[in-house]
Amino acid sequence: MRKKSLLGLLIVMVFMFACVPGLAAPTQDVELIVQATLQALTLQALEGTPAAQTTPPAESPASQTGSISGKLSYPSSGIPPLLVVAFNINSSDYYWIQTAQDQSTYQMDGLPPGTYHVVAYALPDGKLAGRYDQFYVCGLAQGCNDDNWVDVQVQAGVVTPNVDPGNWYGGPEFYPPMPSYEAGKPSGSGIYSAPMPALGSISGSLSYPSSFIPALVVVAYEAKGPGYYYVLTNENDSTYQIDNLPPGDYYVVAYVNGGGFQGGYSQAVPCGLSVECTDNSLIPVSVVGGQVTTGINPQDWYAPEGSFPAYPLP
Predict the structure, then answer these.
(1) pLDDT on residue 226
(2) pLDDT greater than 70 at residue 51
(3) Which fold has domain 61-191?
C-alpha cells in the first residue's frame, strides 16, 4: 500500500505542475522525476527483501552420502535372493539391501562416508555367505592365499563400483553372522551387536636339549596379523596349553624365559628332528572355536639362528 500511495502522489504532482500557468516544466524534466522516483521505489523494495530469500538452498541428503555397487554370484547354477550388507568397520552400524532371484548386480545407496566390509548372505537363513576379500580379487585361484577383507571406501556423492561379494568358499568364521533385517523391505540399516566368537586352545609337549626343561614362554603368533598370545611354564613342566585363542592360524615357538634359546613347532618336528630334517619353517596351526588343537610340540631347538621370531616380551 505504501508503494501505491507514493506513485499516486507522484502522478498528482505531475498533473498540478502541468496545469498551473507559468509553472509548466519541460516534458523531459517530468520524465526525470518519474525515473528518479521509480528508482527510489525499486531500491526500497530491495532493501526490504528478507535475508532468507538470498540464502542458498540446503545441500540435499543424497550429496552427503555415497553408494557402492557390484556384481553378484553364487556357487550354483542360479543366484538365490541375497541380503547384501555393508558393515561400517569403525562403528556398529550396518546397511543392507535385499535382491531378487537371479539378480546379478546391485547398488546400495545412502551410505555415510567411511570404510566398509561387504558380505552377501543367502536368504532366508544366511548360513552360506560370500564376502568381498583379497581372495576374490585374486581370482579365487589355487595360488591365492590372502583371504583378508578388502576395505571399501565410501565418499559423499560418489558410487564406489566393483564391490563384488564373491568369495563363497570360507567358513562362517570368516564373516559375521547375518544381522537382523525386515523381510520384504528392499533396504534398511541397523546397529550390529556381534556375538563373541567361541575361543579355542593349543596344547602340546615340551622338551629341551639338556637334562632338564627350564621355565619357558610358549607363544602363539597370529599367522596373518601382528598379535600373539603366550603362557608361562615352570621348570620341568613337560606340557603346556594356551587358551582363549580366537579362531585362526598360529605359529608356535617356545623361548627360555627371559629370552635367548628358542624352539619352534616346525616341519622338522613331525620329520623326527633327525639330521635329515632340514626344513625349519614353522607350521601354521589351525584353531577352531570351542576345541583344543593338540600335538603342537615346539621342540625344534636346532634351527639356524633367525629361523623363528625374536623373543617378544620386554
Answers:
(1) 87
(2) no
(3) Immunoglobulin-like (2.60.40)
